[in-house]
Design a protein that fits this description.
It comes from Rhodotorula toruloides (strain NP11) (Yeast). This protein has about 280 residues and is mostly helical. The protein contains 14 helices and 4 strands. It has a domain of about 110 residues. Helix 11 packs across helix 12.
Length: about 280
């Protein structure tokens, strides 16, 4: 495979021997890139039309001034001609914007491959990449796997550049997960307190422990977290309160199982609704 260094050369006062297909792209900051016009035209309809207009003109006319700076042009050519993913989120966005501007569908692959690069620091980035490129399954898989939801600040340039609707899908999903988890927890009927309450404080029996755990979990609940695992963890942390009564342990175990069943059904319903919203949002884009 030809490399960008083969196909492009930054001119720095060095006299270059040109072939008839050589064309010079000039960035907004004056950097000059020699490209093989036939190769570039193959990947871009905009450049193909441009080169056809220029034809076999004099060498002095075979240049094109671009609005992008040299770093952006370099990232664009590397992605298009060599398949190298952009190395920063800002570069990713710049190259993504040029995909439509220059009608370069071939850029989709290196932009998608960036999802596995070092700049993909978390699943929020993968969600944003999927939304920008119209890959619903990628965006949905990432959304389902996000385990921490703390608001919209500091999530990276690629996510911040999303249209409002995909951003709303993301935030609404976690808000509804939080509300549903809280509702299920608060509406599980625990029933009567264990008979061991006659011999100790009711707060140290099954119902007292359950009520304490529900209050604790509901007060600090993130939409992406596993609510069942959280409840189990909090109950276990209080094992000293009820550990001498097997009836308390059995009842708590039963209620966690009830929570797990309800939560699984609720998640599936929410997943179906959210996937439909996401598909509609990306189809509009």
């Amino acid at each position: 495979m030809s490399t960008v260094s083969d196909l492009t050369t930054t001119l720095s006062g060095v006299s270059l021997s040109r072939r008839s297909t050589t064309f010079t792209l000039v960035s907004s900051d004056g950097q000059r890139f020699d490209v093989d016009s036939a190769v570039l035209a193959f990947h871009s309809k905009v450049f193909a039309d441009m080169f056809e207009t220029v034809g076999e003109s004099d060498e002095a006319d075979r240049t094109c001034d671009l609005a992008e700076d040299g770093a952006t042009v370099k990232a664009f050519l590397e992605a298009l001609l060599e398949g190298i993913p952009p190395s920063t989120q800002e570069a990713w966005l710049s190259v993504f914007s040029l995909m439509d501007k220059y009608e370069c569908k071939a850029l989709k692959t290196p932009l998608l491959l960036a999802e596995w690069s070092p700049i993909c620091s978390d699943l929020i980035w993968a969600y944003a990449v999927g939304c920008h490129l119209g890959y619903t399954d990628l965006a949905w898989t990432a959304l389902r796997q996000v385990s921490d939801y703390t608001g919209l600040r500091g999530w990276g340039a690629v996510f911040d550049a999303l249209p409002q609707e995909p951003r709303n899908v993301f935030t609404t999903y976690f808000q509804e997960r939080t509300e549903k988890a809280r509702s299920i927890l608060q509406n599980i009927n625990f029933g009567k307190v264990c008979s061991c309450a006659r011999d100790k404080d009711e707060r140290d029996c099954d119902k007292g422990v359950w009520d304490t755990v529900v209050l604790s979990v509901c007060s600090r609940l993130d939409g992406g977290e596993d609510v069942v695992a959280r409840v189990r963890e909090e109950i276990w942390s209080r094992v000293g309160q009820w550990g001498d009564c097997h009836r308390c342990g059995k009842k708590l175990h039963k209620k966690v199982g009830e929570l797990a069943g309800r939560w699984e059904r609720a998640q599936q319903q929410l997943a179906d609704k959210t996937f439909s919203r996401l598909s509609a949002a990306l189809n509009k884009a």
